[in-house]
UniProtKB/TrEMBL annotation:
This is Succinyldiaminopimelate transaminase. One of its GO terms (biological process) is lysine biosynthetic process via diaminopimelate. It comes from Thauera linaloolentis (strain DSM 12138 / JCM 21573 / CCUG 41526 / CIP 105981 / IAM 15112 / NBRC 102519 / 47Lol). One of its GO terms (molecular function) is succinyldiaminopimelate transaminase activity. The keyword Transferase applies. Keywords: Aminotransferase, Transferase. Residues 32-390 form the Aminotransferase class I/classII large domain. It comes from the Bacteria. Its cofactor is pyridoxal 5'-phosphate. InterPro entries: Aminotransferase_I/II_large (IPR004839), DapC_beta/gammaproteobac (IPR019878), LL-DAP_aminotransferase (IPR050881), PyrdxlP-dep_Trfase (IPR015424), PyrdxlP-dep_Trfase_major (IPR015421), PyrdxlP-dep_Trfase_small (IPR015422).
């Protein structure tokens, strides 16, 4: 067996099951699960219909690069969303089966684990796939703490020159999971400067980019930042996006990688052997989803409504504020995060995720300690009910 498998840590939701062992929540309170970032808004009917109308494609083997129609729809969306020039859909776009598998696979493709001192920089707290990809690629993770005292900014200069040496890949998540923080253009500029100096590739996880609260301040993307800063070849930057959150189709497993054509050429070669082509039916449904913005605007409206209701409800009891984007509240707790989550589950049947499960100790601290992640993914009525129970719980503390 690959010895690096032994380095993989237990996934947060497995830890949560262990934390809740022996708990019997009140029978008169229905369970409300706000722990997992799984969109629960209805899938738009036209996407479901497109999937059903294209089941004939199941009789064909799909291509690794997917259909021209899908790649063209993604390229068109990138141009409209980020104000980019013509994207070459043949060389700068690769459809993938959701960002999770692509983020992991990308690490295996670009990291040379046989090189002494191979490292991958990850945000902290973070999406655990980054860490798993690092270990399975034979590299060591370096963690960049995102801290409340500086607004969860990405302070790349806090990583010393010695730590940068050997870094081959940098994962960034913007809007951030779980903090909701969006990288600024200045932060992108600094990251590009460091990439030029040290030669690493940047993997920008942007799957929450379409859930935002101000139409005049849409989250900037990695390719947009590169273009605005004169990096018109997108050198050493690729971005990952998905329909899961944008279009409420997490079960379709549909996303894409776009950016540096030189890197994507090798990634396509890797994927040819990896065997992860997207179903033709899913490709057809994905193309119509990327071509439509009306359902995305409605999805944003639902999240805005929930945050407008829930945030002022919780504010007198917990230090909540509107994130830059995304559907999480990242909340400091008055108790240790695991105790807060366990008691809330046991006494009020509301599930939230301890922040310490989403982070690693780095520079002497775990930046998730004392926080919980609350995913406002259920419908508004259920989220309001959960907020009322959380308030009742806080009143007992």
């Amino acid at each position: 067996m690959n010895p690096n498998l032994a380095r993989l840590q237990t996934y947060p939701f497995e830890k949560l099951r262990t934390l809740f062992a022996g708990i019997t929540p009140p029978a008169d309170l229905s369970p409300i699960r706000l722990s997992i970032g799984e969109p629960q808004h209805p899938t738009p009917g036209f996407i479901r219909q497109a999937l059903a109308d294209n089941l004939g494609g199941l009789s064909s083997y799909p291509l690794t690069l997917g259909s021209d129609a899908l790649r063209d729809s993604i390229a068109g969306w990138l141009e409209r969303r980020y104000g980019l020039p013509k994207i070459d859909s043949a060389t700068q776009v690769v459809p993938v089966n959701g960002t999770r598998e692509a983020l992991f696979a990308f690490g295996q493709c670009v990291v040379d684990g046989g090189k002494p001192g191979a490292k991958v920089l990850c945000p902290n707290p973070f999406y655990q796939i980054y860490e798993g990809a690092t270990y399975l690629a034979g590299a060591e993770p370096v963690f960049l703490n995102h801290l409340p005292e500086d607004g969860f900014a990405s302070d790349f200069d806090s990583i010393g020159d010695a730590a940068w040496r050997g870094v081959q890949l940098v994962y960034v998540c913007s809007p951030g999971n779980p903090t909701g923080r969006v990288l600024s253009l200045d932060e992108w500029k600094r990251l590009f400067e460091l990439s030029d100096r040290h030669g690493f590739v940047i993997a920008a996880d942007e799957c929450y980019s379409e859930i935002y609260f101000d139409d005049e301040a849409r989250p900037i993307g990695g390719l947009e930042a590169a273009w605005r800063l004169g990096r018109t070849d997108f050198r050493n930057i690729v971005m990952f996006s998905s329909l899961s959150k944008r279009s409420n189709v997490p079960g379709m497993r549909s996303g894409f990688v776009a950016g540096d054509a030189r890197i994507l050429k090798d990634f396509v070669l890797y994927r040819t052997y990896h065997g992860c082509q997207m179903s033709p039916a899913v490709q057809a449904a994905s193309a119509v989803a990327w071509n439509d913005e009306t359902h995305v605007a409605e999805n944003r409206r639902l999240y805005r409504e929930k945050f407008a209701r829930i945030t002022p409800m919780l504010a007198p009891w917990l230090p909540v504020s509107l994130p830059d984007a995304g559907f999480y509240h990242w909340v400091r707790t008055p108790l240790p995060d695991t105790e807060f989550a366990r008691r809330l589950q046991a006494e009020y049947n509301v599930t939230v995720l301890p922040g310490s499960y989403l982070a690693r100790e780095s520079n002497g601290i775990n930046p998730g300690d004392g926080f919980v992640r609350i995913a406002l993914v259920a419908d508004t009525h259920e989220c309001v009910e959960a907020a009322e129970r959380i308030i009742d719980f806080c009143k007992t503390l």
